[in-house]
């Protein structure tokens, strides 16, 4: 349950970051293109000449611009890192909408009274308010980016040096593990007898690999309680050793499956892939043993090597599982 909650929180964080990137990119794209501003620049002239059709066309263009900017403000509010930023986004959205309504009203007054100097001055005031809204949006985008960077820097203060690197690698291990789980969910069943026992052994090994990988990631990201990575190192290395041991077993099982189908649809190449996976698992075990053989203070510095070896191992294991699954599907067809 705890691992599921952590994975869900991490997924939400990633989605928020993607939404933040999209919001900032959309805002910058809108600020760099000026169709609404060009329409606004022509509006006084069209209104002063009493050109109703031209005013209506320019008003429609300005309304489209306002809708796009309001959407950006709403996106920025959703990804705001602080409450004040969120309030500013909502306030700016309201200002943009009210300013456009004032511009439309002023232009209608001017088109009906082309000689009215007061109406023309009112429209100019509204145009200035629009320019101020765009300037405020530029500042808001910059502050949103700065707040995101400050949050990242603040979080990194709690993990320095090796801890930051281990946390980064743990993310890669978690991603590879998720891919492995998704692949095994498609593993074909049936067959009976020895084949059924082999399938059960494969699924059990994968489950053990994933459990060990998720536990190692949790420890690497400080899930072991106070004391940081230094305190978690012994337990993390134990989980990494379990991961590597189970990968050796799994690779051997996959090697047997692939050997039976050697020569079928070029899948025999998967045997070499499985052997490579075994070698990667042994390298991971070597990295674990090297880290375990030194005092904890020194082992902490080696945890990054262990996590890198684990990520490489899982990256090698995934295509091996894919090839073996494809072969079993063909053999069962």
TrEMBL record:
<keyword id="KW-0963">Cytoplasm</keyword>
<dbReference type="GO" id="GO:0007266">
    <property type="term" value="P:Rho protein signal transduction"/>
</dbReference>
<dbReference type="GO" id="GO:0051015">
    <property type="term" value="F:actin filament binding"/>
</dbReference>
<dbReference type="GO" id="GO:0007155">
    <property type="term" value="P:cell adhesion"/>
</dbReference>
<dbReference type="InterPro" id="IPR036723">
    <property type="entry name" value="Alpha-catenin/vinculin-like_sf"/>
</dbReference>
<protein>
    <submittedName>
        <fullName>Alpha-catulin-like isoform X2</fullName>
    </submittedName>
</protein>
<dbReference type="InterPro" id="IPR030045">
    <property type="entry name" value="CTNNAL1"/>
</dbReference>
<dbReference type="GO" id="GO:0005737">
    <property type="term" value="C:cytoplasm"/>
</dbReference>
